[in-house]
Please model this.
Amino acid sequence: MFATVACSSSEEPGAGAKKVEVFTWWADGGEKAGLDGLVGAFKTDCADYEFVNGAVAGGAGSNAKQVLASRLQQNDPPDTFQAHAGAELSDYINDDQLEDLSAQYTEWGLSNAFPKGLIENLTVDGKIYSVPANIHRANVLWSNKTVLAKAGITKDATTLDGFFADLDKLKAAGVATPLALGKDWTQQMLFEALLISKLGPEKFNGLWNGGTDWKGADITAAINDYKKLLTYTNKDRDTFDWTDAEKMLMDGKAAYQLMGDWEAADLDAKGFKDYGWSVFPGNGNVFQWLADSFVLPKGAKNADGTKCWLKTVGSATGQAAFNQKKGSIPARTDVGTDGFPAYQQAAMGDWKTATQVPSCPHGSACAQGWQGAVGSAQGKFSADGDVAALQTALAAAAAEFGPKK
Ligand code: BGC
Model:
């Protein structure tokens, strides 16, 4: 009776080999719009294969990374997954979970397509392990123009003191929580932006490469300023994802939010037009960067399909289709500004001339263990405001997870 079993087309032997499961945390809004752009390019370039959406919602991969870790542990990898360039990617490389893509870089002509410094963030011992899709900027302050105008704020603050003065103006104008904030990783972002202002780019870099002492008096001063900054934020921050804080801004309940430039795409996707942006006050021309990249996991069911996905991700057309909707800018250096919204056009210009620093919660500066330790220290601080305890915890995290001296 073997031969008489009926199969629908999707159950035909070999049909599974066409599916490419792409694992991300881009489930909604501008993130989904970006992913859809990339999928459109994949459908054209890789018509033999079928995209399967493995997205797990939750900002910065707060849920997705855990789901991924357990799948990798059970030897059930998706065909490809999103991983941040830099230290976070090294986690997977060190655990021997990724295939070397050096041959594909040569075959697809990618070796000179990306900035040299970015390629270094994807390389270990001469092997390149992922294809970058974009460059995001983390240190951007988004604002609700109408709320600012009502409080008489007509210019972007360029110093921390100026920012505190504007936050006070907003309070005086009746805006109870001028600065919208979310939970753990979003608090890390706000604190890092403030650290960039307080320390400058070189000392900020030193926090991650071992050159700056986390126990220093300048860090104590920064934590005190951060504590003051929290007084302008919503008390329910620890229950908020970045999109909940963004909603406060859209609803006019807050004037500002510090967030990566996926917010540009998300505000656009939600049809909210009344927004402004500036670099975080005091950051000058520092561009705090992070990059999403895609990998070929060892044991992927459909390595050929994944290679087609990766080729699309690295192509000029794929990067344009994706980044125009994602708020980020192409990692490739040869994609023109045509078709990009005003925000990304400005970011493309800034990227060329700015001083670059990495981000811990978005993996360019720290691996996942360090991210987690900082996140829980800041979560605790959000509740107890204990300056000395936060500084001790941050120094301990650097000693445990940072470069060994
Ligand atoms: C990712 C972005 C994403 C953001 C918010 C970051 O870690 O790199 O692609 O939009 O998290 O979810």
